[in-house]
Predict the 3D structure of the following.
Amino acid sequence: MTVKTDKSEVQSTWDGVVADWSADKETFAMPWGKLMMWIFLLGDTFIFGVFLIGYMAARMAAVEPWPDTEAIFTMTMFGHEFPLLLIAIMTFILITSSGTMAMAVNYGYRGDKRKAVMFMGLTALFGATFLGMQVFEWYQLIVHYDIRPWGNPHGASQFGAVFFMITGFHGMHVLGGVILLIVMARRVHRGLYDKKGYAVVEITGLYWHFVDLVWVFIFAFFYLL
Amino acid sequence: MTTDTHHTPPISLFLKVWGLLFVLSFFSYLVEYVGMQGFWRWTLVLFFMVLKAWVILRVFMHVKWERVSLQLLLGLPTLVIFVLVTIAAIEGNYIEGLRLQFFSQ
């Protein structure tokens, strides 16, 4: 039996894995920056994972009842009370920004520079909107509901600590993503990647989608459950 | 360099997934809105959460089109998180027991 090292000839899944690792060349055939972004995101997964697990442990160990998020995050509109309305809108905005980012990546690979830059800008705009709404949410929590990292009048004192830390850390990621998007959109626009190819748009996109991915978990664990 | 990770799936696919994410988010909001509690609330919220995460990862982050080596690189370490979940759950339960035993009237 001959060992197949040419990746195009490989048929079975595991043969492919073995070939990738045993071939006498780089294991992951992709731009260096993309692989590094994946490794960074894997590390970030663990940071958020540990935060969320810490939240679980703190909530399980709390003796007082956990504050009722439904009551805290309710908004009244048109004389009708909507639970979690602001959070739901923030979720939809972040998903939309993920959609526009996917379009930017797609247009980047099609070589349509103008549209890629446009969609990156749009994504940054949605990200900034999300941030603005999060600032408003924090303002309401701090000023109107009197929630502090060390205690609150609605129940277990641990709520404020984990809430501000985790949503704050996520917000920092969004802020970083918006800055990254603006910088990269400018660089693409200036034509710095015309010769190298637009893999950089995908790398920026990976980061942005990850931010959206983390929000999926925060939305479920903090607001819905 | 960008040879075999270079895929340009049709834009319609992304629009469909985008729509799906909207629908899934709407459903998880609906769980809250109708005030479902207990077992079904947890099951449905977690179900929609996992589905959303799966779709974002597979389609938006292009993992579906990556080689299995990269999928394993991302998937295997992440699984280890569940070990920590188990340990932290046991710990959390234990602390709660101690607090109830020693700090309540």
In short: Chain B has two domains: 7-65, 67-105.
